[in-house]
Write a structure and sequence with these properties.
eight-stranded mixed sheet; single chain; 4 helices; Aminopeptidase
Length: about 180
């Protein structure tokens, strides 16, 4: 299988490419949620049109098969959009980023999605490493990565710009899985 596929399934979730018509639901569910962007590299969206513009960039990345490709996380039971998880491929490695609406925290959705994305990455024989980073203070993201089986490798000093926390780059923790772990 060539990674990333357009769609992935888990026990409770469908991970799929976004469509422009998803923008308003995504805005309401997670993109406008200031709580989730606290440690992220982007600010909460202020309008559905801003989410739509972002989705157009993601759709273009999928169509061109390059850049950051993100899936929407959709709950199978009711079709609700919960958040997003995406990847950027760098030759033999994949870097993952994710965001989940705060009202869905603590229900195991993100570890479930991250585990599936890691499995799918290793189904592609060209991929040997999957990694993800988080702000050093983002204990929730650290826990998600640990639940997905990722190992803490260390701290990257002054690495990530998180505009909702600071005007200067902050230390980040890097977690990874490698083929054979």
């Amino acid at each position: 299988m060539e990674f990333p596929p357009d769609e992935l399934m888990t026990r409770r979730l469908r991970l799929r490419r976004p469509r422009l018509e998803d923008a308003e639901a995504a805005f309401e569910s997670y993109a406008s949620d200031a709580e989730i962007t606290r440690y992220l590299t982007w600010n909460a969206h202020t309008s559905p049109s801003q989410t739509r513009e972002h989705f157009q960039q993601v759709i273009d990345a999928w169509d061109l098969r390059m850049g950051h490709r993100a899936w929407l996380m959709q709950r199978q039971a009711d079709g609700a959009l919960l958040g997003t998880i995406g990847c950027t491929i760098y030759f033999h490695r994949v870097e993952i980023g994710f965001a989940l609406g705060s009202r869905f925290w603590g229900q195991g959705y993100m570890p479930e999605a991250l585990t599936r994305v890691c499995e799918a990455a290793f189904d592609d024989e060209r991929i040997f490493r999957v990694q993800a980073l988080c702000d050093e203070e983002n204990a929730r993201s650290s826990r998600v990565m640990e639940k997905a089986g990722m190992k803490l490798e260390g701290r990257l000093r002054s690495y990530g710009y998180h505009p909702n926390r600071s005007d200067v780059p902050r230390d980040c923790l890097v977690y990874s899985l490698v083929r054979g772990d």
